[in-house]
Amino acid sequence: MKQLFTALLLCAVAGANAQTHPAEKLVQYVNPIIGTQRMGHTYPGATVPFGMVQLSPETDTLSYELNGKYNPDMYKYCAGYQYDDKTIVGFSHTHFSGTGHSDLGDFLIMPTVGALKLNPGTADKPGSGYRSAFSHRNEVTEANYYKVKLDASNITAEMTTSTRVGFHQYTFPKSDQSHIILDLMAGIYNYPDKNVWTYLKVVNDTLVVGYRQTSGWARTRTLYFAMSFSKPFTQYGYKKYDKREVYGGFWGKFNQTKNFPEIAGRQIRSYFDFKTEEGEKIKIKFALSPVSTHGALNNLRTEIPGWDFDKVKNDGQQQWENELHKIVIQGSKETKENFYTSMYHAMINPTIYMDADGQYEGLDKNVHKADGFTNYTTFSMWDTYRALHPLFNIIEPKRNSDMVQSMLAHFDQSPEHMLPIWSNSGNENWCMSGYHSVTVLADAVVKGNAPFDANKALDACVATARHRDYEGIGSYIDLGYIPDEKSGVSVSSTLEYAFDDWAIAQMAKKLNRNDIYEEFIKRSQNYKNVYDSKSGFMRPKLADGTFRSKFDALSTINEGFIEGNSWNYTLFAPQDPEGLIKLMGGNKRFVGYLDSLFTMNLPDKYFAETEDITRDGIIGNYVHGNEPSHHVAYLYNWTDKPWKTQERIRMILPRMYKPTPDGLGGNDDTGQMSAWYIFSSLGFYPVAPGSDQYSTGSPAVNGAVINLDNGKTFTINVKNQSPKNVYVQKMVLNGKTLDSLFISHADIMNGGEITFYMASKHK
User: Fold this and answer.
1) Residue 763 CB neighbours (<10 A)
2) In this predicted model, what pLDDT tens digit does every residue of 208-224 receive, in sequence order?
3) Of 211, 109, 114, which is closest to residue 157 (Cα–Cα)?
4) How far apart are CA 735 and CA 749, in angstroms?
5) Among candidate residues 742, 732, 724, the one with its CA nearest the CA of residue 650
6) Summary count for the chain: helices (H), strands (E)
7) pLDDT for 495-548, tens place per residue?
8) Considering the entire predicted model, what is its pTM?
9) What share of the chain is helix, strand, coil (3-state, %, to 5)?
10) Which pLDDT value is given to residue 22?
């Protein structure tokens, strides 16, 4: 049986190399609807791997602002789509996947018939505007394909993409009043003043170009487009919703509302009219560019020169097939659906951010050309340094090195001379804490995936970590911790800086930069400075060296932590588990602490005020839906009860990941939640990125083959697998019994196989 499985997997490998995949089609297991409800914040639309265009439906148009304050209902629409909604407003071209804050939602298109309506209407009265009711029964979601019937107009909407172009196909009924609406006002996390300026030019009766500049999460963001129709429109027009202008120049000489070739303003909706026969398809190619309308038009003509919708769909799905075949697993249908949807989510972000000719707008607002690398954006570093980038170092090494070079370009263009914190679209958003780009760079260098100037990368890391006026770094350097008076997240930032410093030290060690190593390995021990031995918790410390007296270890609000409480963050020293165990009183107390984390009850009041976590994302007091705890279950491997790691992992996997719309235990956070699932279901995890070691757990698959870019394969065999057999009795690596709980990066990249022998009782 083993020989047959190996033969089938080798067949899949050969297919991957030939890009034909004669073995099982893996794209069939991708379910983009997973995580679209509640806290998942993913979207079900069409995109290719790491695509700049992410074309998806919007199901409401809430404003970020309500009565001058933040509208908390807006949080549900980080990705624009909510599974529980009954109406669709339109289809826009840019989205974030699984973020806890948002932006984008650019260039919304909606087909309609009948009397023209240029307002979106409301969810309770969709007929008052251009929105439409829809049913999930008439909705199809696949990798790089979305289809839905719009009940109000009896129009079937389909969409697919290339990297930079969204391809729409609308099947109309017979009508002399068919319309395509292009809403340049719509957006995600929108508010009345978010649009800085919008411009649209009609080139001819099938081609429209333009741009929009917004000021949101990305403070200064401009995106250009080119829109091509498969059929000439009969007439067109616009409506401006701007506030009364103090000065508008002399454009009043024209009637700009109808059949006028250009329009500019802050708030514009446009329309294009057609006459359609029953079943007639109107197709639209919509290309994006960060540089110019010329760049968008070149992207359109380069990537989709023709009008063959099915070819573009199939080409994109073949790209997904190639990516998914990088890991071929054995398991149940549910396991495969969870696994390959996780692979899909993990390969949406970061996103390509440059034109087909390599040009992009940089952080300095100048146009640059990526020389020898593909430029990427959407760097949610606080999330993705933990497992997503380590995953890329195994299955996407070329892309990961390009992402590192994109970060180094960011550093070169940064007025603050810092690596990315949370960057998107030529902007630094400064979201979350830590300076975790340094860990991504260190992980690549330590693991030998560094076809770039590694010493220059180290210099950028050091400059970022020495930036004294960024979020308490000066105090951290001087005192060894961030005082409570200086920051509302003083404890978590101290802990995160200490880990990042350790990663810098590992990078320096690899490059024989001993002075840097000594500086940062010392800084990496700063986590100890916020540990209170009396209470047994990490807690806020004042500038005078005393701990703040008022303190609640269970609360996530105003206790010195970001997206977590002290119970979870006290375990955040993945760079030094041995030291942490000693600090907390030794093996017995540490194991008891870990056990309590998973088994205690966290009263609702402690997360009632948080937007991103519900009871579904919590096991005991272990918060899987927020990333600071993602390494925690593996910490038993440094104690005398490593079997508890195996037990916990196999408990977490089915509880936090299900193939349903509410199947994620928290935000996917641009792929980090999914990367945790991928690693953990394979049986190992990068507890400390920046190290070449992986901590073993308990594989949930029945077997797997990792197809490496170097042509080698790493095979994972699982003997006696079952839901009850969660304990590892023995591991054999390349024919030799593994005498530790760790494997190295080289063990994987050199090829070979590991066999897990499973049982229902621990050793």
Assistant:
1) 10
2) 999 999 999 999 999 99
3) 109
4) 17
5) 724
6) 18, 39
7) 999 999 999 999 999 999 999 999 999 999 999 999 999 999 999 999 999 999
8) 0.96
9) 30, 25, 45
10) 54
H or E segment and range at residue 322: helix 309-324
Q: Which residues pair with 695 in a beta bridge?
A: 685, 742
Give 240: exposed, middle or buried? Use CB within 10 Å, 0-12, 13-18, 19+.
middle
- The structure tokens listed for 700 are 């949930």
pLDDT grade for 15, boundaries at 50, 70 and 90 = very low
Cα distance between residue 702 and residue 26, in whole Å: 16
Q: What single-letter amino acid sits at 479?
A: L
Q: How far apart are alpha carbons 54 and 698 in whole angstroms?
A: 35
Report percent pLDDT > 70 for the chain. 97
- In terms of Cα–Cα distance, which of 480, 476, 486, 496 is closest to 421? 496
Query: Is the distance from CB of 612 to CB of 39 less than 8 angstroms?
Result: yes
Q: Half-sphere exposure of residue 646, counting CA atoms within 13 Å on the CB side?
A: 24
Pick the closest to residue 61 from 89, 85, 33 (CA basis). Answer: 89
Q: What is the DSSP letter of 686?
A: -
Task: Give the up-direction half-sphere exposure of residue 287: CA atoms within 13 A in the CB hemisphere.
Answer: 25
d(CA 752, CA 710): 13
**Residue whose pair of structure tokens reads 């997240």 in the numeric block:** 489
**CA-only gyration radius of the chain, Å:** 26
Contact 189, 176 (CB under 8 A): no
Can you list the domains of the chain with their CATH numbers?
36-321 (2.70.98.10), 326-759 (3.30.2080.10)
CA-to-CA distance for 191 and 74, rounded, in angstroms?
Answer: 11
Q: How far is 662 from 576, CA to CA, in rounded Å? A: 35
Three-state SS at 692: coil
Of how many residues is the chain composed?
A: 763
- Say how many CA atoms lie within 13 Å of 668 toward its Cβ: 38
**Confidence band, pLDDT 50/70/90 cuts, at residue 40:** low
pLDDT above 50 (res 404): yes
Contacts of 759 by beta carbon, 8 Å cutoff, 6+ apart: 720, 725, 727, 729
- For the residues of 345-369, what is the DSSP string, one character each? HHTT-SEE-S-TTSEEE-TTSSEEE
Q: State CA 375 to chain mean position distance.
A: 16
**DSSP structural state of residue 242:** P
**Cα angle: 141, vertex 146, 147; to 5 degrees:** 100
pLDDT band at 7; cut points 50, 70, 90: very low
Q: How many CB atoms lie within 10 A of CB 258?
A: 11
Q: Could you give the strand order of the β-sheet that contains 703-707, starting from the edge strand earlier in sequence?
A: 327-330, 703-707, 713-719, 752-759, 727-733, 736-737
Category of 430 on φ-ψ map: left (φ > 0), alpha (ψ -120 to 50) or beta: left
> Which residues have CB under 8 Å from 583's CB, separation 6+?
528, 531, 533
Please name the helix (run of DSSP H) or strand (run of DSSP E) that holds residue 327, with its range, or none: strand 327-330
Work out the angle at residue 288's Cα, subtended by the Cα atoms of residues 286 and 294, and round it to the nearest 5 degrees. Answer: 100
Distance CA 492, CA 561 (A): 5
Cβ–Cβ < 8 Å for 666, 674: no
Distance between CA 448 and CA 223 in Å, rounded?
36
Beta-bridge partner residues of 691: 689
| The predicted structure's pLDDT at residue 11 | 45
Give 110's strand partners: 181
* Sheet (strand 268-276) strand order: 56-58, 90-92, 108-113, 175-183, 268-276, 235-240
Tokens of 211: 């741009």
Query: How many Å apart are CA 380 and CA 218, to the nearest integer?
Result: 13
Please write the tens of the pLDDT for every residue from 678-719: 999 999 999 999 999 999 999 999 999 999 999 999 999 999
Give 667 or 178, the one with higher predicted confidence: 178
